[in-house]
Q: What sequence folds into this?
């Protein structure tokens, strides 16, 4: 299996250390593991996630590679904003690019039209990035809006999906939605299909684990969903490029 969205205590909202998380990943049978802790420069959130030492963060992950046989990647979940241009520089294999807030509020769900505010910020924040990667948990706002209202098809959403593809970025199938009351991955299946229709090439999967107990959770279901949608490959990133892995090989590994 593959899981590119995992947090450790380098993120203030995560519960377990890098060592504890990697042990859990190994026990879960993961073959490709990406650590992608939060970094939200200039965020207005009270519990702003900010990695103070990238040397410590990156080197800790690199040093851990010798203890495990699986592919261990150095990632980062970078909170991107239209008003912030800061992109950290280090030996990252990839990034998860996520919009967590909009200029007018870090509590988007309280805005008069939260979905429109979110999608507009996505369009404005997306731009070519120095690292390959994936747009994080598209439609995650469903966790917080009243009634967990789903995202509907619109010209604005199409604009977001087209721009993701245009800047050579992928999307992730984030399985944490199955741990929320709406019990569905982020994004919805039809959004994944629409991304492909509009020229999207790269898709990955991630648990968005903030504790060792959910590392790899839902990944096999996500892979089966992608197979059902006709997606033959998922991707990870290494040496500045996208690396394909056949979905069927990962499903076979789960069932073996």
A:
């Amino acid at each position: 299996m593959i899981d590119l969205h995992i947090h450790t205590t380098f993120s203030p909202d995560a519960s377990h250390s890098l060592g504890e998380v990697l042990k859990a990943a190994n026990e879960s049978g993961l073959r490709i593991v990406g650590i992608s802790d939060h970094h939200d420069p200039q965020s207005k959130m009270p519990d702003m996630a900010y990695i103070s030492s990238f040397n410590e963060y990156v080197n800790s992950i690199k040093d851990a590679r010798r203890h495990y046989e699986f592919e261990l990647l150095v990632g980062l979940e970078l909170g991107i904003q239209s008003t912030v241009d800061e992109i950290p520089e280090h030996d990252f294999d990839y990034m998860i690019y996520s919009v967590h807030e909009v200029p007018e509020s870090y509590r988007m769900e309280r805005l008069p039209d939260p979905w429109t505010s979110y999608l507009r910020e996505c369009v404005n924040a997306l731009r070519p990035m120095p690292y390959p990667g994936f747009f994080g948990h598209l439609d995650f706002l469903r966790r917080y809006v009243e009634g967990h209202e789903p995202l509907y098809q619109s010209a604005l959403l199409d604009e977001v999906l087209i721009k993701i593809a245009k800047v050579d970025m992928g999307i992730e199938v984030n399985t944490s939605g199955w741990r929320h009351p709406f019990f569905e991955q982020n994004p919805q299946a039809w959004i994944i299909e629409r991304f492909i229709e509009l020229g999207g090439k790269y898709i990955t999967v991630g648990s968005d684990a903030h504790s060792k107990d959910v590392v790899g959770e839902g990944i096999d279901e996500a892979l089966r969903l992608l197979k059902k949608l006709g997606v033959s490959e998922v991707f990870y990133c290494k040496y500045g490029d996208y690396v394909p892995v056949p979905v069927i090989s990962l499903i076979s590994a789960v069932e073996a």
Summary: The longest helix spans residues 114-125. The two ends are 11 Å apart (CA to CA). Residues 2-255 form a domain with the TIM Barrel fold (CATH 3.20.20.140).
